[in-house]
Prior knowledge:
One of its GO terms (molecular function) is catalytic activity. The protein is α+β, with helices and mostly antiparallel strands. It folds into three domains: 9-229, Endonuclease/exonuclease/phosphatase (Deoxyribonuclease I, Chain A); 244-291, no CATH class; 308-351. It has helices spanning 89-102, 143-154, 192-195, 250-265, 273-291, 308-323, 327-371, and strands spanning 3-4, 8-10, 13-19, 25-31, 41-46, 51-60, 63-70, 73-81, 110-116, 157-159, 174-175, 182-183, 186-191, 198-204, 215-220. The chain has a six-stranded mixed beta sheet. Strands 1, 2, 3, 4 and 5 form a five-stranded antiparallel beta sheet that branches. It has a two-stranded antiparallel ribbon with strand order 11-12. Strand 8 (73-81), helix 1 and strand 9 form a beta-alpha-beta unit. Helix 4 (250-265) packs antiparallel against helix 5. The longest helix has 45 residues, at 327-371. The chain is flat and about 90 Å long.
Amino acid sequence: xxxxxxxxxxxxxxxxxxxxxxxxxxxxxxxxxxxxxxxxxxxxxxxxxxxxxxxxxxxxxxxxxxxxxxxxxxxxxxxxxxxxxxxxxxxxxxxxxxxxxxxxxxxxxxxxxxxxxxxxxxxxxxxxxxxxxxxxxxxxxxxxxxxxxxxxxxxxxxxxxxxxxxxxxxxxxxxxxxxxxxxxxxxxxxxxxxxxxxxxxxxxxxxxxxxxxxxxxxxxxxxxxxxxxxxxxxxxxxxxxxxxxxxxxxxxxxxxxxxxxxxxxxxxxxxxxxxxxxxxxxxxxxxxxxxxxxxxxxxxxxxxxxxxxxxxxxxxxxxxxxxxxxxxxxxxxxxxxxxxxxxxxxxxxxxxxxxxxxxxxxxxxxxxxxxx
Length: 372
């Protein structure tokens, strides 16, 4: 048995907190018109120590967003109610523009978007796995359906309703009053990261709450700890840089030629030019890696690091900043450092010129070798 208090209205925004027995409680956050009974959206969040409600954004009567922290995972839930197909184009543009702004978050916050989009799409009637940049044969689609497709493509979202194989009765979300017309208007969208933790999404017809819409439930089983959410990625191995200038040595050049000849003799000629090119490149690269030495990056000598006077000025500046000394002393120290650094500028210019010239020579040697 649940008991509820009357919602407190403020500019069309209401918060209804429901409390009950058996350690269960829910908070209802509602956004809509305070006077007329039209539109209105709400989000129900369970009261739990592991669920922290960070911010509730009641945008208008068609949009509401909630930023929550679920077991350490930052999630934004957006509930929306799109204009119908007969609505003016201006109202549709305003709705989708506002919705896109709410779907833009930082990289650490995940997105779940649910609601009635009033969109007709034939791809929603079967397991089409709708997501961004997927080419589908959508035979029946209305204007709201086209806007819906553009939304999840531009925002890189996945339509969870279309990722599971279910009967038609478990896909239909709207029934006409006479029961003859059936549509799929309600969708669940999520970002690609959350998609891997979704186990099911279907319509439950057994729930009767005096509406022509049916209840859509998506089940997410996300890890409860940050360590469990960690995905181990393979480290990228950087390719070795070969010293092609060593080919000027007659002995190294002879070894490279002999190894290349041996590798080329083992290649079997085929009609497929693509595979033949791959084998040629592989044999030449193997000969180069086995005979040409690797460039060892030497430690670059920077003579200004050995300037004791300059290093002493650096330490003095750090000490003054830590002690919060007067600004005159700090300015005088910075001026002395600038004068000291000016002495090293000619040497720094020569060093940079040598570095760029040496790299350009290496590129030139490699281009000449490839021409041969």
